[in-house]
Amino acid sequence: MRPDILNPLFAETQSLEGVGPKLMKPLGKLGLERVKDIAYHLPDRFVTRRPIADLDEGAEGEQVIVALTPTEHRASRSARGPFRVLAQDGAGNICAITYFGRASYTAKKLLPVGERRWVAGRLDRYGDMLQIVHPDHVESESAANLGRLNEPVYRLSEGLTQPRVAGLVEQALERLPELPEWIEPGQLERAGWPNWRDALRLSHRNENARARDRLAYDELLANSLALLLVKADSRRRKGQALVGDGRLRVQLALPFEMTGAQKRSIAEIEGDMAQEAPMLRLLQGDVGAGKTVVALAAMLIAVEAGQQAALLAPTEILARQHYETLRTMAAPTGAEVALLTGRAKGREREGLLMGLLDGSIDIIVGTHSLFQDSVAYKDLGLVVIDEQHRFGVAQRLALAAKGKRSPHTLAMTATPIPRSLTLAQYGEMDVSRLDELPPGRQAIDTRVVAQDRMDDVVAGVARHLASGQQAYWVCPMVRDNESDDIAAAEARFAALRERFGDAVVMVHGQLAPEVKDANMERFASGEAMLLVATTVIEVGVDVPAATLMVIEQAERFGLAQLHQLRGRVGRGSEKSVCLLVRGAELSETGRKRLALMRETQDGFRIAEEDLELRGGGELLGTRQSGEAAFSIADLDQVQRLLPAAHADARILIDRDGGLTSARGEAARILLYLFERDWGVQLLRGG
Ligand code: ADP
Ligand code: MG
């Protein structure tokens, strides 16, 4: 149960004054659902604006306040184009005030023709005209209200304005309770950090590195604590030593020799499973490194020892694919392999549940439905988690540990993670690395192509398909709005379909699962030649005959993600090509990042260098790349503060594993605050 003291923070945003159903949607888009989310919606930056008498005084790129009189409303010809208000200053200079999205109504209301308004925003140039895009303020009175020093600038979504958000933040900050201190007093003093409530308030007032660091530290501490609680819990639980006699493994008729890295990893896993303490191991290996067969070997060890094994996949598509692969590979061993997903219903589902309960199923593959309460196992000895989301790992470990005895756990990831961040993401798991690819892999010929050469790209795809080979076409998720992205992908699909006809299929997140699977199936079977997809194909999908990949707006993706996407090709013996199509405006860093993709195929190197290139300024991953691990701490803060947070968490758990001291109680509050409460739940379970 969440401590009462946090209740005001977890109240819905609707409890704030002025928030009705209309604001819920734009707030929801930003993930602002509760009062605490608003309080933690920290400014992207602060601006100080300069009042200017006329436009000539302002410099390009400068934040200004200027009095302007609208002369004309100009809608754009295309429905999606911007709406412009032309306006004049006192000296007769013209400036466009530009609104994107469906904002013409707002624009007309705020800026009626012929009436003078004070406009605050950034002065830019558009062609040979001056312009202010989405002004932060438009007021009819004086400049006085607009000239606030250090005004916070918040991330917005359609339907929100800066003053609106600032007003909600004010309200949320007023409701902050006083919380007991969870940071070790010495640490607090050394760093000169404010207490939690002050830190939040200060972070909204001005650029305050100490306050921001404290908030980041809180998040890192919460995460470390939760991971350590999982670890401690699994240590406390009794597992079971599983020693296989090898009788099933010798019957595996593999068409290849295992790599040294595979053999080493299997030996490490075998060693762990032979211990009574439950294994907590992470298998890290690039796409195509051959993790599946390592997982299979581990699962057969469990079966040889008379127990069951479960493989948990992040998506239905992947679960199916794993099931097919494992069933085929395991066939000669006689082990019974089955598939359980949310879609199994009625008789079929009952049969599966029965088989798990009476032990006739040895290996079960599925999605999270494997761990629903209604699913009971005769003797689950090993859980393999084929994982893409980092924090999910620890969370699911907690899930898997529901029983009296903990199963051994093997988590697998294809996301290459820089060494300095492994700790943050996986806590203290033991790690096996598949750092050697199976022999005979061809290098993927990677090229960067400018967007305006799209015709050439399509022509290249045409030649490729004509030669009888398959291809992927990836459309990015780039905007805040998922349906806009889907619309863009649909439009691309329609265009490609016009050109290539029935040979094109599409998968994306908003299609019904049956449709998605059917389309995937058509592609996997070779019936369809071109698969247009949003990033849902990112993980695992294995179609060796596909040898060309086109990635649109490649600069928008995280490098780890590009790397994973590219790993979908180059799986067969044919030479493979990856075309990274880049947008018109590419930053220097963007250029370097794409160049790195061209240069190397070593995922671990890509991860390390990407970290260098992006530097500390950028958030750890971005939402669209699905990499975001922390919501408050940025990359620089993770690197600076994580070691201390982790050490601090460890000392606390060593001294007070039950979190019962005064500081322990405070730490519980912290865990709930950051919604790592699954960590707390383990305390009671133990
Ligand atoms: P991952 O899950 O790590 O991305 P997979 O387990 O799907 O990789 O393996 C990719 C492909 O490589 C599969 O077709 C698999 O059969 C093959 N493979 C795995 N290990 C070897 C090996 N040692 N030698 C040759 N091929 C291998
Ligand atoms: Mg895999």
Largest sheet: 7 strands, parallel
**CATH class annotation of the largest domain:** Alpha Beta
- Tally of DSSP β-strands: 22
- Radius of gyration, in Å, reads 28 Å
Number of domains: 4
In percent terms, what proportion of residues is strand? 15-25%
The span between the termini is 16 Å
Helix fraction bin: 40-55%
CATH homologous superfamily placement of the largest domain: P-loop containing nucleotide triphosphate hydrolases
Could you list the spans in which at least 5 consecutive residues all have pLDDT below 50? 616-628
**Class inferred from helices and paired strands:** alpha/beta
Domain Helicase ATP-binding: 272-434
Domain Helicase C-terminal: 467-612
Pfam families: DEAD, Helicase_C, RecG_dom3_C, RecG_wedge
Organism: Erythrobacter litoralis
Question: Can you walk me through this structure?
Answer:
- With 686 residues, the protein is α/β, with parallel strands linked by helices.
- The protein folds into 4 domains: 1-44 and 162-174, DNA polymerase, domain 1, CATH 1.10.150; 47-153, Nucleic acid-binding proteins (OB fold (Dihydrolipoamide Acetyltransferase, E2P), Beta Barrel); 249-434, P-loop containing nucleotide triphosphate hydrolases (Rossmann fold), CATH 3.40.50.300; 445-600, Rossmann fold (3-Layer(aba) Sandwich).
- 40% of the residues lie in helices and 18% in strands.
- It contains 23 helices and 22 strands.
- Strands 12-13-11-14-15-10-16 form a 7-stranded parallel sheet, sandwiched between helices.
- Helix 18 links the parallel strand 21 and strand 22.
- It is globular, with a radius of gyration of 28 Å.
- The chain binds adenosine-5'-diphosphate and magnesium ion (MG).
- Residues 291-292, 540 line the site of magnesium ion (MG).
